[in-house]
Amino acid sequence: GSGDGQGQILQRFPEKDWEDNPFPQGIELFCQPSGWQLFPERNPPTFFVAVLTDINSERHYCACFTFWEAVESAQPQSHARNGDGDEEQEEAAAPIQPAQLFAPKSLVLVSRLDHAEVFRNSLGLIYTIYVDGLSVSLENVIGNLLTCTIPITGGAQ
């Protein structure tokens, strides 16, 4: 009704927490700092990095790439006609097409390393594969991204 909603995690990798790096609780709140809302137009994709600090003072860099998808309205709207009285009562409340609404969908990458450009490129690749509907499974793409080696600034690979 109001267009406000609550985010939910649809899919995550890995599916279970790693012992030394648990999944951040409430990550969906950081994806949409202004709240999860529907909009009448498709907004351009956005990217930002939030830094979360856990109870042990360890930093977790949460890169968030948000894009907008069309959603179908759950309820048809009805429109009452104002005629001169010549129209039949059956036509008094004719359904009209609901306005197209767009909902945010976010891809999030959580890392202990601060490499915003790598995060942006990785999430952009996942987004492109998703939008283009390529026959590559996201599990394989993410698995390949997780196994790549990123050089440490000023150090050996």
From TrEMBL:
GO terms for cellular component: cytoplasmic vesicle. Residues 1-157 form the UDENN domain. One of its GO terms (molecular function) is guanyl-nucleotide exchange factor activity. SMART domains: uDENN. InterPro entries: DENN_Domain_GEFs (IPR051696), Tripartite_DENN (IPR037516), uDENN_dom (IPR005113). PROSITE patterns: DENN (PS50211). GO terms for biological process: regulation of Rab protein signal transduction. It comes from the Eukaryota. This is MTMR5 protein.
